[in-house]
Amino acid sequence: MEHNTQIQIPRVKLGTQGLEVSKLGFGCGGLSGYFNAPLSHEAGCAVLKEAFSKGITFFDTANVYGHEGYNEIMVGKVLKQLPREQVQLATKFGCIFPEDFSDFQCQVKCTPQYVRQCCEESLKRLDVDYIDLYYQHRTDTSVPIEETMGELKKLVEEGKIRYIGLSEASVDTIKRAHAVHPITCVQMEYSLWTREIEEDVNPLCRELGIGIVAYSPLGQGFFGGKAITESLPAESLVGSHPRFSGENLEKNKALYTRFANLAAKHGCTPPQLALAWLMHQGDDVIPIPGTTKIKNLNANIQSLAVKLTPEDVREIADAIPISEVSGDREHETLFKYEYRSSQKMEHNTQIQIPRVKLGTQGLEVSKLGFGCGGLSGFLNDPLSHEAGCAILKEAFSKGITFFDTANVYGHEGHNEIMVGKVLKQLPREQVQLATKFGCIFSEDLDGLQCQVKGTPQYVRQCCEESLKRLDVDYIDLYYQHRTDTSVPIEETVSIQFYPCSCLW
Q: Residue limits of the NADP-dependent oxidoreductase domain (predicted)?
């Protein structure tokens, strides 16, 4: 099948945000070394130009592929030799590896500041004005995804990136991220021997209109040919992979033999059958195999000519039972960033947040409340209303119903307006809303200045303004923010609201 007529690689929509790509992409990481020594820029560019000439226009790289951005620099060089507007360029941020990759020790960092830093550096290495698709490489569980997405959304608005993706993201992360800004696609390991995402990620993506990009579609090269199961190059990092080590590899060889026989039945090679099976999982699934050899590139393209019936697809999957695959799918030091591991870190067991009486006047709240002030900036930049609302909705879904804001949180009532917006998306009677009056902030040459005012007239004025910003009929709990010592407290608390605007 390697020398048949030229295959026409179809164009497909990746997600529902407008990005169109070739049905078969190209994973560029291997050009900078993984299975073998890195190629020179000239040799790597030759492979990529050949891929483009055959109709592959979707190139996938990352800031950590190769030493000091070697891979992005290579991809940037080939882009100068191709029509930029016809290439869909994807890169990633978030992972930090040691320079030599020797021990696979990985850190993940996705703070807003680091997102922007990585984007600027990638744009420079790639020597482009924009990135078509920008992925979070792995999930940083120490940073709320809403904060990361807020910065990515800004980069979209600035034209530096066009679409946002997530790699190895849990179901919960995908939902929360998508609530801030539409996610175009998720990139997940997906192959005949790694199919966990069929249970949870794939159904969610199809529900939300998110595309699925399959990395390592040949199982880290396992389905790429018998050579990798017999002898690995000395410089290959695959030898340390659990599925290619010792007894695990010996057990997995039996699976390869079975699969090779099935490929012969279909008149194609094992890698072609593995890619064909994956592409038959749906138009929304885009494999991105990589290679350093043009002959392998051409063979991969021929997988598009392999036609499978639904019965064939089932038979192929049955030939590689997941229960018979030996070894974890990821290196030990990277396993904690695998999507289900990060999901466990995010969610251990669901905690039931108890309800308690707050005081003796009848107000009942969640034992854990949520201070909303930081959403409008204090320790960090303010979140957009969309990002802030996403966090508050997530808090409510977990059982936190006691939300605390104030008339002075954020510029011109930013925080109360945000809280008011989320209340429109929640059952109002189940939320205990607290806000405050009394502080007046200003800024002069001496810095931030605060005045306190607790006159009855000012109390009423603040309450009416808060009701308007929050867009509610009543406030559950209304605080005096600070004590105005020039006004007797009896005067401040004696004001009556008719009709009743504050319950406590």
A: 23-319, 368-494
